[in-house]
Amino acid sequence: MTALLTIRDLSVRYRRDGAAVAALNGIGLEVEAGERLAIIGESGSGKSTLALAIAGLLQGSARIDGTIDWQASQFQTPRSVTPPSVLPDISPARGEIGSVNAGSLPAVSTFGEGGNESAISPLEGEMSGRTEGGVTERDLSKIDSNQIPLLGRDIGFVFQDPSSSLDPVMPIGKQIAEVTRTHIGLTWSQAYAKAKTLLERVRLPAPEAVLHAYPHQLSGGQKQRVAIAAAIAAAPKLLIADEATSALDTIVQAEIVALIRRLVAEDGMTLIFISHDIALAATLAERIAVLRSGELVELGETRQIINAPRHAYTRALLDAHLGLDAEPLLDRQGVLT
Ligand SMILES: Nc1ncnc2c1ncn2[C@@H]1O[C@H](COP(=O)(O)OP(=O)(O)OP(=O)(O)O)[C@@H](O)[C@H]1O
Ligand code: NI
């Protein structure tokens, strides 16, 4: 297998009330092309920080050390630099650059100040670039664009709360169409046709009607389907789902997990599935990485992690899940249930 991403010695510190909060500490991890990798750990263990670092979405105030190599160029036809018309208006005052290793994606990119959304072109990152801290963008003027993954084009990101990535006042069809217009240069009519196909692929009923609907007209599960459609619209190599099913009830959660599994298989995408639920992660992932307090404590094949965890913390996560009334994680044949 070939690594799509190689993360080396990645550390992230946030600043809070003048003090540094270490969110990740010396993470080393290879994500193989085409694999389904789950990242698990309890709240605050650094899962989202890792996902945001990979996607280039960390706030400018975060201090990042280490490198993240993106080796997708061998899997994709080289694409030209994003035209200046859709580049964000990056002011020199933004963020810091650092930690650039030759040939590596620098883990540090430049970022806008939180909430300064007006400086970002509305065509760029609208669907998948939004996060609670405000939209962030890599400074493409300083880095060879073929070496860094571009959010929306190379990486699709699905957040826990679809409302945070969907624009409440824009029709759904337009939101999805903008992704393919921006990243693969479709015309509006092509982009709308593609949006409709995507709504069919995520199994939304009445895709034609959904094209013209607004997010508030859909249920939580339907909104998450729309967010997934937008995330995969430009056929990214990597899909990151950060607690994408945590806000949904159990039945809808299972449906969304099944949807993600199908789409990833159909498109040959690499998946990073983030969850605090080891059992849910085990249903989807081939490998599981266990984070604890910003450290990678265990990484292995799902079967090994579930059957023979090496680290006491993984065992504790399993034990916490395996309450007396819990379903067994593996059935008698050793198949994940
Ligand atoms: N913007 C921020 N500013 C300051 N500290 C932060 C920020 N974001 C996260 N942290 C801290 O960094 C650590 C890791 O947080 P992170 O959100 O990555 O964990 P997580 O595993 O995703 O947790 P959860 O399961 O609750 O989503 C925590 O201690 C958290 O409080
Ligand atoms: Ni999180």
Automatic annotation (TrEMBL):
It catalyses: Ni(2+)(out) + ATP + H2O = Ni(2+)(in) + ADP + phosphate + H(+). GO terms for molecular function: ATP binding. Keywords: ATP-binding, Cell membrane, Ion transport, Membrane, Nucleotide-binding, Translocase, Transport. SMART domains: AAA (SM00382). It is an enzyme of class 7 (translocase). Its EC number is 7.2.2.11. Residues 7-318 form the ABC transporter domain. It comes from the Bacteria. SUPFAM superfamilies: P-loop containing nucleoside triphosphate hydrolases. Belongs to the ABC transporter superfamily. This is Nickel import system ATP-binding protein NikD. The lineage of its organism: Bacteria, Pseudomonadati, Pseudomonadota, Alphaproteobacteria, Hyphomicrobiales.
